[in-house]
């Protein structure tokens, strides 16, 4: 029985483990093991909603142990430290608790097929001071820490402990995360004000969104980018384009050739890279962003027994360029990777991966804008309620991949009931 090990329980890794568990694990044709340093999964595009309290992470996260039990795969907690390609084993570091006591010792896991689905982290591009002074939204824990910190700050303003008239927030990186976080912060403070917290309203916020390129959201057509920038400015944000940050200190960002930008809260959402430890791991080929370079079959270029999917994979597109590090790309990669692993088990020919860009929708608090791909691969602009529905459906498709249609429907109903009895902003 083949041993298939998947490292990383993000959007691609967890969907892949679930698919293979149903197709191979249930029938005992293979043993499927999912490895992750955490015990719970949260869809990464939701992190800005966790950070601003819009989403309750306790209700929307997925427990790996339970998901494995329900879908015929096993879960091993641990963080990858090494790959031994000769012995076909991986080494996982110790797992410690909050008191730094070891709960799971260093262990070795053997594989016949290994899938790297580790995801990505924020890329500070080596900019001095950024790592020390900026907040990153890389995972559920960092989003929760930010939420608690920003709530504390808001409450200090409300109670009069802060003598400032404005709260200066600077966000570097005007991709989806930066734009969505900006709008959610305005919505968050407005909602808190409606709960009776005095002095809390959108006029309190002085948010500056900083982008190095000539426009925000470069993945969108120029017209959509322009419309969304106008919406951000309508919220009250200041948008700076063609502004490259070259340094940061405790209270300022320093743009190249311009005056410093002061900030009480400094966020960095400008780009992603694969984790640093992946660089040349096990002598596998990697690129400058530490991504594992893969062939069209999603197998790594130097070892056919090792696949890579999602943000940690560098997959070239036939027409030129590379597959973007997005949730929809991870979903599509997981689907093809599952088919190819099943083909290996059945000794059949492997398929090539071809990314199908279905569009990009940006959440703007209580509305949304973006583009969707229509028949003939043309893109059509959408906004308002239709865009909001499409944006929400992307997450529902992820849930369907994990739980099936019936359970996802029940989750949606349960979420509506829960939202009807709790505050609109999670203040825990």
TrEMBL record:
Ribosomal protein recorded as keyword: no
Entry keywords, A to Z: FAD, Flavoprotein, NAD, Oxidoreductase
Pfam families registered for this protein in UniProt: Pyr_redox_2
Domain of life where this protein originates: Bacteria
Entry keyword annotation includes NAD: yes
InterPro entries recorded: FAD/NAD-bd_sf, FAD/NAD-binding_dom, NDH-2
Occurrences of domain FAD/NAD(P)-binding (ranges): 2-334
Coiled coil: none
Homology family: Belongs to the NADH dehydrogenase family.
Name of this chain's protein: NAD(P)/FAD-dependent oxidoreductase
UniProt source species: Orbus sasakiae
